[in-house]
Design a protein that fits this description.
The protein is mainly alpha-helical. The protein has 3 domains: 139 residues, Four Helix Bundle (Hemerythrin (Met), subunit A); 87 residues, Helix Hairpins (Orthogonal Bundle); 64 residues, no CATH class. The protein is built from 13 helices and no strands. It starts with a helix and ends in a 20-residue tail after the last helix.
């Protein structure tokens, strides 16, 4: 009985079950509650509104934290029913699940409220921490999930780009300090002080609050700006390549699942639901899913036409695509 309830809880709380009305209702309710929390936190920064509706803001905060706490505990309790969690070691599996990015975000969304009970925290600091609840929307956004996945996969390449930027920052700061220190001691009084100019110049922002005035300093600044164009482009290219590879892998995985489902030439209702759930988990749009499905069907027809003497006739093609079940 407990296992059945726990499994049902995991199904309800996990996103991607668009055919399950309860799961869909829970998802919509949580998204609305998170959005209202972000609006409420922003409104609390208006002093006149905070003084006038202080009690209402507190009651809404207490209600929201209660809901988010129940959600957090329910996710941890039902985590061992997920495929990604080790069922043989439930304690270790739950601990690893608690350390996953999305679950850590869930914890950070409720932690400020409980910290304020035991510690005297600055309200501004507390409000900033509570704003982290906006990241809970990541769970319900395929684009945000993809972005976090790409950042995790490309972390080594991004770290290398950041290391190169740091080296150039030190070199640029040291160079402009040696050139401009004597003529502008207030602006370039030390290498750490010169790092502000170096960062602004390397990133090609150019605020103009601190500028070199010597001919050599201007030439050096122009050189740093040109180098900065290439340095800033490195993370952009890495992320663009990562996104392209991520979407390609997801389309390939979805196509393989379609090919497996169509091996017998018939797409059953269970297979349709599996494809629909997989599409939601991978963050593919209905148009992409339908396009991939059509490509698989054309490939099957083409392979059959290339082998007219095999003696095998494929059953009729299914009439519905996975996107028709939405």
């Amino acid at each position: 009985m407990t296992t059945t309830i726990r499994k049902r809880t995991a199904e309800i709380l996990e996103t991607g079950h668009s055919k399950d009305p309860v799961s869909r209702l829970i998802d919509i309710t949580l998204v609305i509650l998170i959005s209202l929390n972000v609006i409420a936190i922003a409104l609390e920064s208006v002093s006149s509104l905070l003084v006038r509706y202080q009690d209402e803001f507190f009651l809404f905060e207490a209600f929201s934290v209660t809901i988010f706490t129940i959600e957090y505990l329910a996710r941890i309790w039902s985590a061992i029913e997920l495929k990604s969690v080790d069922k043989k070691r439930p304690v270790v599996g739950r601990l690893k699940y608690m350390l996953s990015p999305l679950v850590l975000i869930d914890l950070l969304s409720i932690l400020p409220f409980y910290l304020s009970i035991f510690f005297a925290l600055d309200l501004r600091f507390l409000r900033v921490l509570r704003l982290l609840r906006i990241f809970k929307l990541t769970r319900y956004s395929g684009a945000m999930t993809t972005m976090l996945s790409v950042l995790h996969e490309e972390m080594s390449a991004l770290s290398a780009a950041a290391f190169i930027l740091f080296i150039l920052l030190v070199l640029a700061s040291s160079g402009i300090y040696l050139i401009e220190h004597d003529v502008q001691p207030e602006a370039f009084g030390s290498i750490p002080a010169a790092m502000w100019w170096s960062m602004v110049t390397l990133t090609t922002v150019g605020y103009g609050d601190v500028t070199p005035i010597t001919p050599l300093g201007k030439f050096f600044g122009a050189l740093v700006s040109l180098i900065g164009v290439g340095v800033v482009a490195l993370p952009t290219g890495i992320l663009a390549s990562g996104f392209a590879n991520a979407f390609r892998r997801r389309r390939v995985s979805y196509k393989q699942e379609i090919d497996f489902a169509l091996e017998d030439g018939v797409l059953t209702e269970d297979e349709r639901q599996t494809l629909q759930r997989m599409r939601a988990e991978l963050g593919l749009s209905a148009e992409d899913a339908e396009h991939i499905f059509k490509l698989s069907m054309e490939q099957i027809k083409h392979e059959h036409q290339q082998c007219p003497n095999c003696g095998h006739n494929l059953p009729p093609a299914p009439q519905k695509t996975p996107s028709d079940t939405e």
